[in-house]
Design a protein that fits this description.
five-stranded antiparallel beta sheet, alpha+beta, Alpha-Beta Plaits, ten-stranded antiparallel beta sheet, Uridine Diphospho-n-acetylenolpyruvylglucosamine Reductase, domain 3, 2 domains
Length: 423
């Protein structure tokens, strides 16, 4: 076991905040995790530090699971894979593909940890694809007294713990649903007009297994429409239509809004290399030189919500790197931003302009207010706790269940307190 601290100087990936914790522990076994949790007054699990909020911080200690062996166990009968909570999605995906299996969905970044991504409501895209936590069949949790508890789908608590914000304990293992491996191809269409896309938004977002719009709200066109489609064979890619939704097919050789792309357009390949946008062996997105925020709105209001943001385009554009617009299926997870709501997700990758972004977020949220936006828990937002309670009906029950698992607030932090959990 290796300890770092005090005064770790640890920051999140983007460097927009420094962790409050005084020490970071790196256990190499689950019993070591149990001992650390049992004897720590306050502690929190630390993932890959890709969150832009303080959701994973602690006033005392952090536990990184990066030192635990990332053995992947596949249950062929149950069609599940069990992996260490600290393992990255990219490592998991590569091993599943090697053994002939796949995940239904992945986020844009393969670098993020399984436990951290699922706990914050992270998602990919696709009308029939839920947030990543919907794939959780079971998880192993070290609770406040150091006990190991397994929570699976037979336990109603899983609906709260799956997107649990780290509030219930340290997740040491996660069991995920898997499917047989499949092949995807990616096609990109450049410069479709906003009007043509918004008029046909449902058709556009349903046009492939996974669809993303890369956009700037101050631009007259959508920079690119990304379609990821399941295909029968990697040997016969076929020709894509040259024009679609008012956009022109592009081989993605030069897309200035996105760097380090994972795969060229029109070339089929394994799901593990196509679902994430970025390569595991390189820095994703803007390499951390960025800020991010994201909102989920009811799918039926998607076009209106995007049009409202276009009205702020002249203020948003100077500070925006790119906006990514995706869809998620509704789910039953209490703290999922897609709880009982098929959603359009509107993500902002900002330039690192912290003061300007902080000033913009309340105005963006006001423009979206008629559509009751819900935030991604790992990204910046300004929505207050009373409004969150109105938009997330299970928040009071979530807080009550957290207190049952963690009555003394061992896993609490300022973030949880700010949203009404462990006041």
């Amino acid at each position: 076991m290796r300890d770092a601290g005090p005064n770790t100087g640890l920051t999140n990936w983007a460097g927009n905040f420094a962790f409050e914790a005084h020490v970071v522990h790196h256990p190499t076994s689950v019993p070591e995790v149990q001992d650390l949790v049992a004897r720590s007054p306050q502690v929190k699990a630390l993932g890959t530090r890709h969150s832009f909020t303080t959701v994973a911080d602690s006033p005392e200690a952090l536990i990184s699971l990066s030192g635990l062996a990332s053995e992947i166990i596949i249950d062929r009968d149950a069609m599940t894979a069990t992996v260490t909570g600290g393992a990255s999605y990219g490592v998991l995906a590569a091993e599943l593909q090697r053994r002939g299996y796949a995940l239904q969905n992945m986020g844009s970044l393969p670098h993020i940890s399984v436990a951290g991504a699922t706990a914050t409501g992270t998602h990919g895209s696709g009308d029939n694809n839920g947030v990543l936590a919907t794939a959780i069949a079971a998880l192993e949790l070290v609770t406040a007294d150091g006990s190991v508890v397994t929570v699976d789908r037979s336990n109603p608590d899983l609906a709260a713990i799956a997107v649990g914000l780290g509030a219930f304990g340290v997740i040491t293992r996660v069991t995920l649903d898997v499917v047989p491996s499949y092949t995807l191809r990616q096609d990109l269409y450049r410069n479709a007009s906003w009007d043509s896309v918004l008029h046909n938004l449902d058709e556009v977002m349903a046009s492939a297994y996974s669809v993303s719009l890369m956009a700037d709200f101050g631009s007259p066109t959508i920079k690119s429409v990304w379609q990821k489609s399941i295909t029968e064979s990697a040997d016969h890619p076929g020709a894509a239509p040259v024009f679609r939704f008012g956009g022109t097919w592009n081989d993605d050789a030069e897309l200035p809004e996105v760097h380090n792309l994972n795969a060229r357009a029109g070339v089929p390949g394994p799901w593990s290399d196509r679902l994430p946008h970025f390569r595991l062996d390189s820095q994703p997105s803007a390499g951390g030189d960025e800020l991010q925020s994201e909102y989920f709105v009811d799918r039926q209001h998607g076009a209106a919500a995007l049009d409202a943001l276009r009205g702020l385009g002249d203020r948003i554009s100077p500070h925006l790197g790119i906006a990514e617009i995706r869809t998620t299926a509704a789910d039953e997870l209490w703290m999922s931003p897609a709880y009982r709501q098929a959603s359009l997700t509107i993500g902002f990758t900002w330039k690192k302009h912290p003061a300007e972004v902080a000033a913009l977020l309340p105005d963006i949220e006001a423009a979206l207010a008629p559509y009751s936006p819900r935030p991604h828990w790992g990204k910046l937002f300004a929505i207050d706790r009373s409004t969150l309670s109105e938009r997330l009906a299970r928040l009071p029950e979530f807080a009550a269940l957290v207190r049952r698992y963690d009555p003394n607030g061992k896993f609490s932090n300022r973030f949880l307190q700010s949203i009404g959990v462990h006041d």
